[in-house]
Each structure stands twice: as structure tokens, then as C-alpha cells.
Fold this sequence. Notes:
Number of domains: 1
Radius of gyration: 18 Å
Amino acid sequence: MTTFTQEPRRIRVLHAKLAVSIDMSGPWSRVLDGDWAGHVAQISFSIAFWVAIPLAAGVVRTVRRDVG
Length: 68
């Protein structure tokens, strides 16, 4: 059973976990140090968020552009 007072705490916890994954300094420092153990999901999410998603959006935008 969830109460109203537990929801803000859950949102803060989710925000903290998401913020750590989105922040590029943590995952990239692990990549550069060669310390991938236990952090592969965080590194993969960070790369997808900052590289793959913008690249895909740019490709879609370029392909759909009218060349006339």
C-alpha cells in the first residue's frame, strides 16, 4: 500500500538514480579508467542518452528533409 508521503521519496530516489546515469562525468571516467565492472548498464544508458538518441534524431531529421 502506498501513501501520499511515500511518493515524494520514491520520486527523489528515482531522480537520483536517473541523474547519476545521465551525468556523463561518472560513466566516462569509468570507461577511461577501464573500470567497467558493475557499471555496464549505467555506461550503456549514458551512451544511449547522449550519443545514440541525438544521432538518431539528427538522421531522422536529415532523411525527412525536403531537398527541393
